[in-house]
Design goal:
This protein is of the alpha/beta class and about 90 residues long. About 45% of the residues lie in helices and about 15% in strands.
């Protein structure tokens, strides 16, 4: 998905954790960004949302879906799972 769909990647972890490491091209989700995207975001652009382990991002993905976004995905396993899959260390 990352290579083919050019998704909007949103990191909903704490800012300090985002700064310590995040998926390339991910944006840190803060309240203003979230609200702006909900109001003016491209509802057809694929979106990938992640958190620490995949639980909080599920709720945020559901919210975007409720606002009419067509292709919203929560990263299963979150950032921790992504790091483990790619054998990355902090």
């Amino acid at each position: 998905m990352l290579a083919e769909a050019d998704p909007l990647i949103l990191d909903c972890r704490e800012l300090k954790d985002y700064r310590a490491g995040h998926i390339e091209n991910a944006m840190h989700v803060h309240e203003q960004l979230r609200d702006s995207l909900l109001k003016k975001g491209d509802k057809n652009r694929p979106m990938l949302i992640y958190c620490y382990y995949g639980h909080a991002s599920e709720h945020l993905a559901e919210m975007f879906g409720d606002f009419g976004f067509k292709q919203v995905h929560s990263l299963a396993g979150g950032f921790a799972g992504w790091k483990e899959h790619y054998n990355l260390t902090r």
